[in-house]
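Our consortium's second objective concerns turning raw sequence data into structural hypotheses that experimental partners can test. To show how far this objective has progressed, the report includes one record in full. It was chosen at random from the queue rather than selected for favorable results. The single chain below, 259 residues long, was entered without modification.
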Amino acid sequence: MAATRIASLVPSITELLIALGLRQYLVARTGFCIHPADAVRDIPKVGGTKDVNLDRLRSLRPSHVVVNVDENRLDTVEAIRAWPMVERPEVIVTHPNSPTDNLALIDQLVQAFSHIHVVVQRANACRSELADELNRTLPNDHAPQNVLYLIWRGPWMTVARDTYISRMLAQVNWRTLPEVNGGKHGALRYPVIHGDEPWLANVDRVLLSSEPYAFGPQHFTEAIALCPNADASIVDGELISWYGPRAAAGLRYLRGLAA
């Protein structure tokens, strides 16, 4: 069997791979793969999630490249798949769309790397923790609220209802507006808001995510002007939007916010 050399182009999955005991096999990451800090510090960077340095990645000779439908560009994946056969890695395409999908994500990685001694045992622990938090985080235990989850400013951008973020929020009965689906991939998954939409008056709470845009208290006035009947707060975007180990912590975090 060829040596296992993993390149992760997905920040949250880099963290998951390390949680599964695969740190020593990681040979590449993006500049946004920052957790856990001590573990990733010495892993070579190959650009960002949207602007991967393919020459640098290729020079690191990965046997596996982990990508994500929302995080990475299709042309990046196509370019990797076009490498000569002798250099071509296995491309592992991930696409969780709900907190429960993390269970399938763990299984997907186990299938790829179960030949490595610790992976199955660590995967079982991750599954158990997540299943426990899912059982503790039930929509009917919380009062319903309409929320606007902002991920960007200039223009304002939010999330469609069939995204991972929206379905995380739904676990505590927070229903994202607008009431639209964005499809399996593409820009419609993250709608632009113009500020004159009638449904903005129905928002109870505006959630300003800490990432990818670094919202701060200075943006509260703008957010409240956008939704005049709502309260505004900053939320931890990593806990709400990252897959893998942060999903369980994210569910605990959301229960605290909704209490």
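The partners drew two points from this record. The longest helix spans residues 119-136. The chain has two domains: 6-135, 139-258. Both points have been shared with the crystallography group to help prioritize constructs.
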